[in-house]
Specification:
The structure is a single chain. By secondary structure, the chain is α/β, with parallel strands linked by helices. The protein has 2 domains: 138 residues, NAD(P)-binding Rossmann-like Domain (Rossmann fold), CATH 3.40.50; 128 residues, NAD(P)-binding Rossmann-like Domain (Rossmann fold). It contains 11 helices and 15 strands.
Length: 281
């Protein structure tokens, strides 16, 4: 605990979940400072002053762009981080571009990803599925009960979302590429489809994509009809053709359930600091 209290630790940027995470970390003994965190005061005059001598940075899921650390409207070249940060500083975030990873590792800056913490992935998927269900309820002009809904993808989020919708009485079809996944889907009482083919037609009240790759073409989108709600949950580039009218649902935990999402993020930060999460060592 004494070592934690002595850390120069910062939460930088992010959405509302980062404010909740900062509060959780403080309560659990890590007195983080904040800069450009929504709803919280800035404890530095600018980004460079926050970075100066920092031993721990908690970063947004995507903080590096074109080999620059970007927080809000400010940016610092990754090449300057070794001169600004404390020796052997730790960066906890989501995605680290490979060239940046390699260069930071060579300069003894350790990077850890919350996205490699299994507990965080599972809890984030559950929060996303719950928030997406609520968003669908608002967007559709009918009840979930009896609605025909296609969920594309059988990863963590796809499984959680399909299960919730099925339990609410929706007629759920799940599209998956692997035959073994389609067999699993069917044993759970849902219909299955082959991703991208949709051989049983595209007559749905809603389609929710969780796959970050093209899965619904412009032509297939036209076949869905004007009344079908198309929701995107996958990260870029997403799965729907660009011209389709898509309801964007990326980052739902941070916008819809920020307190819970922040608690999960704070747990993941501790997991990264105590051995879980990918580390560049």
């Amino acid at each position: 605990m004494d070592a934690c209290n002595a850390l120069r630790a910062w939460v930088l940027g992010g959405d509302r979940r980062y404010a909740a995470a900062a509060e959780c970390l403080r309560r659990s003994g890590l007195p983080v400072r904040t800069y450009r965190v929504p709803g919280m005061g800035d404890e530095a005059e600018d980004l460079e002053k926050a970075l100066k001598g920092a031993e721990l940075l908690i970063l947004p899921m995507r903080a590096f762009f074109a080999e620059r650390l970007c927080i809000g409207t400010e940016a610092v070249e990754a090449a300057r981080l070794p001169e600004l940060l404390a020796p052997e500083a730790i960066l906890v975030g989501g995605w680290f571009p490979e060239p940046v990873e390699d260069w930071l590792r060579a300069n003894r800056i350790r990077c850890r990803s919350v996205l490699e913490v299994e507990r965080y992935q599972i809890r984030n998927a559950a929060a996303t599925a719950e928030a997406a269900t609520g968003l669908l309820m608002e967007a559709m002009d009918r009840t979930v009960l009896g609605a025909r809904i296609l969920v594309i993808g059988w990863g963590r989020i796809g499984k959680q979302l399909a299960g919730r919708l099925h339990s609410l009485g929706a007629e759920v079809t799940v599209a998956a590429r692997k035959e073994s996944h389609r067999a699993e889907i069917e044993t759970m009482g849902m219909r299955s489809e082959v991703t991208g083919r949709y051989e049983n037609g595209l007559s749905y009240d809603a389609v929710v994509n969780t796959v970050p790759a093209p899965v619904i073409s412009a032509e297939q989108g036209k076949r869905l009809g004007a009344d079908c709600v198309m929701m995107e949950l996958a990260s870029e580039p997403g799965g729907f053709a660009a011209q389709l009218p898509v309801l964007m649902g990326r980052g739902l935990p941070g916008t819809c359930v920020p307190v819970t999402a922040g608690e999960h993020l704070a747990e993941a930060v501790w997991d990264c600091l105590t051995g879980e999460g990918r580390t560049l060592e």
